[in-house]
Specification:
The structure holds two protein chains of two kinds. By secondary structure, chain A is an alpha+beta fold. Chain A has one helix and four strands. Chain A starts with a strand and ends with a helix. Chain B has two domains: 7-142, Oxidized Rhodanese, domain 1 (3-Layer(aba) Sandwich), CATH 3.40.250.10; 146-269, Oxidized Rhodanese, domain 1. Chain B has helices at residues 13-19, 36-39, 65-74, 88-103, 115-121, 151-157, 171-175, 215-223, 242-253, 265-269; strands at 10-11, 25-30, 46-48, 82-86, 109-112, 125-126, 163-167, 198-199, 232-236, 259-262. The chains are: A alpha+beta, B alpha/beta. The interface between A and B is medium-sized, with 27 and 31 residues.
């Protein structure tokens, strides 16, 4: 049975917006969701097969792109 | 969870883990992020998309009765089944689904306390396989309008001394500093709030692990802003989903008798010509 591994959440401020970065591994895939901290709607998401850090970096890059071109 | 006004509406992640294969219940995941279900979900859980399955996709409205009946039938839910809802971000859209199912009279609905966040954080079992439910027969009631506020009611209620409006959006949306949460489309012409509304952001009802705060903490949170059980309460946000979470807290956890969700919310009020706005 699959399980979530290394579930973690950190906060960061991008373009004046406090974002929440949540990542974890399920099976062989790493996932990362970037949301606005309030209300928590998705700004960006990413998947990676290499590492959790890679998923986080990809998702944050997408979030920066979206927030700087709002 | 035992001292809430209606403690039976919440089940724990442990309870769901132990009962997920029971024949008398159907588990449904409803996420803000509509792709999250595909990453992995509670074994046996079906996934509902709030953007396409829990609303009228033509006109702005809740799901039509016939569409709700079709959704329940295809999900294997008969009228006598227990529905356990859960989702990401503190059960935000699980509460949206809960509100609509209650509108249509489904009797036994529970929310998994802590939602997807807690299930994942506890490393409980997941699957990527979507179940193939056996079709069930489902007959919905006519919508219970006592649970919903419409614009004319709000236009009267905001001036009434026996009614309190709760604005559950973020502080910056309440003050008009921003028109919508970062990353989401600006869907109103004016920022601010309905005159007299109390600002109590929805997520203040939750702990860091996604579970609901204790009865005592919730009582202090709402009563501290004058939102008390002796008043009629109307909750609103931007499009009515965050406020369904607060509606759930006030009606089921605190047991307030008269609570409505104004799902027209700020996208309606904030676009009205001549509507009074406070900042």
């Amino acid at each position: 049975m699959l399980k979530s591994e290394n579930y973690r959440t950190t906060m960061r401020v991008i373009e004046g917006v406090t974002i929440s970065i949540t990542s974890y591994k399920i099976g062989e895939q790493f996932y990362c969701h970037v949301t606005n901290s309030d209300p928590g709607a998705t700004i960006a998401r990413a998947e990676a097969t290499t590492s959790q850090e890679d998923a986080e970096q990809i998702a944050q890059a997408k979030a920066i792109e979206k927030l700087t071109h709002k | 969870m035992s001292n809430y006004a209606n403690p039976e509406v919440l089940v724990s992640t442990q309870w769901v883990d132990e009962h997920k294969n029971d024949a008398n219940l159907v588990i449904a995941e409803v996420d803000v992020d509509t792709k999250a279900y595909e990453e992995g979900h509670v074994p046996g859980a079906i996934g509902w998309n709030w953007q396409t399955q829990l609303c009228d996709t033509l006109q702005r409205d809740i799901i039509k009765k016939a569409d709700l009946e079709a959704l329940m039938s295809s999900s294997g839910i008969s009228n006598d089944k227990m529905v356990v809802l859960y989702g990401d971000n503190n059960n935000w859209f699980a509460a949206w689904a809960f509100w609509q199912l209650k509108m249509y009279g489904h009797k036994d609905i529970r929310i998994m306390n802590g939602g997807r966040k807690k299930w994942l954080a506890e490393s409980r079992g997941l699957t990527k396989d979507a179940p193939a439910p056996k079709r069930a027969s489902y007959k919905a009631s006519e919508p219970d309008q006592a649970l919903r506020a419409y614009l004319p009611q709000v236009q009267t209620a905001y001036r009434a001394s026996d009614t309190v409006l709760v604005d559950v959006r973020s502080g910056d949306e309440f003050t008009g500093k921003i028109l919508s949460p970062p990353g989401l489309p600006e869907t109103c012409q004016r920022g601010g709030h309905i005159p007299g509304a109390k600002s109590i952001p929805w997520a203040q009802a939750c702990n860091d692990d996604g579970t609901f705060k204790s009865l005592e903490d919730l009582q202090a949170l709402y009563a501290g802003k004058g939102v008390t059980a002796d008043k009629s309460v109307i909750a609103y946000c931007r499009i009515g989903e965050r406020s369904s979470h607060t509606w759930f807290v006030l009606k089921y956890l605190l047991g307030y008798k008269n609570v409505k969700n104004y799902d027209g919310s700020w996208t309606e009020w904030g676009n009205l010509v001549g509507a009074p706005v406070e900042r």
